[in-house]
Amino acid sequence: MRAADIQDDLTDILVTEEEIHAKLEELAAQVATDYSGKDLLLVGVLKGAVMVMADFSRRLPMNASMDWMAVSSYGASTKSSGVVQIRKDLDTDLHGKHVLIVEDIIDSGLTLSWLLENFESRGAESIEVLALLRKPEAAKVQIDCKYVGFDIPNEFVVGYGLDYAESYRNLRDVAVLAPHVYS
Ligand code: PRP
After folding, report:
1. All domains of the chain, ordered by start, with CATH?
2. Any idea where the Phosphoribosyltransferase domain is (predicted)?
């Protein structure tokens, strides 16, 4: 759906679909240069990263394998503690692999911090992160993210994979959710 279809639920459009696609094209070219001649494994973090993975991977001018991981916190308290539960693990053995974790957003950074540590223990040859969005003001831990799409303000954003109570993931753009929706 487009922002115009649900305009009462949104305040601002932060990043348009066109801007996202242009940025993913740019990042894909950069990643292809950096990983030239290497075996690249893209790991998408469900569910938010589905859109980024689909659009980024198709723009990548090289072959790459894909795998998925589903993680979730036990609730708000767990998010702040950084403890993550694996709901679906990788099907791939990471030994000797060049891994690029594909994320929709880095908020506090706690999910990625946990994932990076977890992946490091599995013997990957290299591990980098690509995140479409990052909220610098929300960071609780610093994540070394090599490929960042857009830095955005610390607002409640939805769309392009990002949800509120499982809704709005299918919005084409990234937009700020109107407070009346969640308060
Ligand atoms: C979101 C997002 C990241 C994480 C970022 O996932 O996709 O994985 O939160 O937040 P953090 O930097 O504060 O850890 P979420 O747990 O909402 O699950 P979802 O992808 O299924 O929506």
Report:
1. 17-152 (3.40.50.2020)
2. 18-164
